[in-house]
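Researcher: Good morning. I'm working through a list of sequences from a screen, and I'd like to move beyond sequence-only analysis. For each chain I'm collecting a predicted structure so we can compare shapes side by side. This is the next one on the list. No need for commentary yet; just the structure.
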Amino acid sequence: MLKTFPKGGVHLTDNKITAGKPIDNLPVPPTVTIPVSQHAGAPAEVLVQVGDKVKVGQLLAQSAGFISGNIHSSVSGTVKKIEPATDSSGFKKPAIIIDVEGDEWLETIDRSETLITEIKASPEEIIQKIKAAGLVGLGGAAFPAHVKLSIPEGKKAECLVINGVECEPYLTCDHRLMLEKSEEILVGIALLMEALNVDKTFIGIEKNKPDAIEKLSVLAKDYPGVSVVPLKEKYPQGSEKQLLRATLGREVPAGALPIDLGAVVFNVGSIFAVYEAVQKNKPLIERVVTVTGKTLSNPSNFKVRIGTPVINLLEAAGGVTEEAGKILSGGPMMGRALTNTNVPIVKGSSGILVLPDTESKRRPVESCIRCGKCVSICCMGLEPFLLMALTERNLTERLEKEKVTNCIECGSCSYTCPSSRPLLDYIRQGKSTVNNIIRARKK
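Model: Good morning. Structure tokens for this chain:
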């Protein structure tokens, strides 16, 4: 029997129109814009100057603390500018702009396609290589990988859980990686099992990816302790807490982390990056991005250099037509609308979605009819209608009491509301306010 999480969730039309499209290499652009903050935590400190010549893989900015990440050059060329540049959030952030000249890589990077299965690095060396390579979670949160692997004192990792769910509609970059880089992913899993000193790994994959389930299940037989867990289709099963409930049958308490259950969770894209960092000495300088939408003539999965403008991906996918109404960074549930298409692809960019005009317009907001749908589908057990009302009235103490900070911002409440109420918009606002109050209180 297929597993899933029991509380809430919605069943969505998956629209995986690029599932059969192999990963294609996107040409290197003439110029890249590389933000120095592509991760949770402190921005990296810039090491280069305007006019410097750089190679592919060269360190541009160094992590500025424990929760931070290194930034490397994805191209070779000359540093043109170091200045704030607009990112996908619409805000200007410090960035390094490089004019591309050729494609010269650092000699230390192994660019061959040869699979390396032998693990020579010690657990400490594996974590150090991951940190040096600037690896972050590629599922969206962009949390520095070395921090997740540094188990706090008093805690113990018992198992590794791999997120191959990709429950967000339209996106297929993880699906294609599981099909095309399955052996590398399994070596990456073995590396993390060595680093964490665990003997069990569970790979959660939803049933709408039967080819990935079959391929990884066959290959996993050669890797002791590694098993594939087929899951029912239900959104937001890719969220850490819901994934752990589905795969392990264990609930992460409010305010707790997966490590409190003895689990460490990694996305399949991050696992592939682990393989490249440790076995190939390759920093995180490129990633797979799904470029998709019903109005595109050539929706595809592209391997893209970090810093490439979004417009380049859209043009390679056939270009934006008049029928397009909105362009999102990410999927339709948790993605954010882009303010312009010259913003760069960053480490956390999983997809670019072009929605047709007919699907991108919000319906008129009506009064709440007290149907309770938003409550029944909330996988965190919250009351979205109440959180929106409290935010509207600026009742922050009550918001904190009602656990607004537990919201994972999946958007299921807004999706299911028959009155088209902007529940998530208000909840995000209330959550941000309460988090600021909590931070100030701690100081």
